[in-house]
Amino acid sequence: MNRTVLGALVVVLAVVAAIFAYQAYERDQNSLQIEVGPQGVKVDPPG
After folding, report:
1. Which domain of life does this protein belong to (predicted)?
2. Cα 3 to chain centroid, rounded
3. How far apart are CA 43 and CA 16, in angstroms?
4. 37 forms bridges with which residues in the sheet?
5. Contact in structure between 32 and 46 (CB atoms under 8 Å)
6. Distance in angstroms between the alpha carbons of the first and the last residue of the chain
7. Which of 2-11, 15-24, 27-36, 37-46 shows the lowest mean pLDDT across its residues?
8. Cβ of 22: how many Cβ atoms within 10 Å?
9. H or E, element range at 42
10. What pLDDT, on the 0 to 100 scale, is given for residue 46?
11. Could you give the CA distance from residue 12 to residue 2 in angstroms, rounded to a whole number?
């Protein structure tokens, strides 16, 4: 396999991984967040 094809394959895989990571990040942002700290419990509704 020549180096150009291998490099292109690595770039494509990196882009696909970045897309999945961004989708997971967005899903986490739209979920209910519960934080426990020194001031007590804080609940942030999604949105």
Report:
1. Bacteria
2. 30
3. 33
4. 40
5. yes
6. 47
7. 27-36
8. 10
9. strand 40-44
10. 67
11. 16
Rounded to whole angstroms, the Cα distance separating 40 from 47 reads 22
Note the residue count of the chain. 47
- 46: left (phi > 0), else alpha (psi -120 to 50), else beta? beta
9, pLDDT greater than 70: yes
Q: Which two tokens stand for residue 20?
A: 């999945």
Instruction: Answer whether 34's CB lies under 8 Å from 41's CB.
Output: yes
* Strands (DSSP E) found in 1-47: 33-37, 40-44
Q: How far is CA 27 from CA 19, 21, 23, 46, in A?
A: 12, 10, 6, 10
Residue with tokens 């394959």: 9
